Amino acid sequence: MTRIEARETLMQILYELDTAKDISGGDAGHRGGEIIRERMSGNHIERSNALLNQIIDNLTDIDGEINKHSTKWKTTRMPKVDLAIMRLAIGEMRYSDDVPDAVVINEAINLAKKYSTENSAKFIHGVLGAVSKDNQ
Fold first, then answer.
1. Least confidently predicted of 21-30, 94-103, 107-116, 125-134
2. Which of 2, 20, 128, 134 is the most buried (most CB within 10 A)?
3. DSSP type of residue 15
4. How far apart are alpha carbons 18 and 11 in whole angstroms?
């Protein structure tokens, strides 16, 4: 499994937890960890589990960043796929020092192109670019 595949799987897990209304519950990290162990292999399990827990623990702050930089849509009205992609990307930008923001943003755009719409890719690019610029 490549890092790109692990990132894609982690985005899917975030989406699943959110659609199941399980992302902000106290059991979200445990459930997410179980899914990671089922779907991932190798050294990606530990990294992905740590990142997932960071995202869940800081979900309010991450969503606040998204809301701050989104001019028309708030997280409560965004497509859940787009939201999962942005949560993952912001989590990586904040909590993973080994991946440059530009790479994280590019990977998020690729996920949006694969799982959402072309308009979503542009929207995600704008929000994540602003978040990255704000955090420098």
1. 21-30
2. 128
3. H
4. 11
Percent composition of the chain: helix, strand, coil (DSSP 3-state, to 5): 75, 0, 25
> If you average pLDDT over residues 92-109, what whole number do you get?
93
HSE-up of residue 73 (Cα within 13 Å, Cβ side): 14
13: CB partners within 8 A, 6+ apart: 32, 35, 36, 39, 52
How many Å separate Cα 99 from the centre of its chain? 14
Q: Of the candidates 58, 57, 44, which has an alpha carbon nearest to the alpha carbon of residue 10?
A: 44
- The pLDDT of residue 2: 87
On the 0-12 / 13-18 / 19+ scale of CB atoms within 10 A, 107 is buried
Rounded to an integer, the average pLDDT of 93-118 is 93
Number of Cβ within 10 Å of residue 109's Cβ equals 18
CB 86 within 8 A of CB 14: no
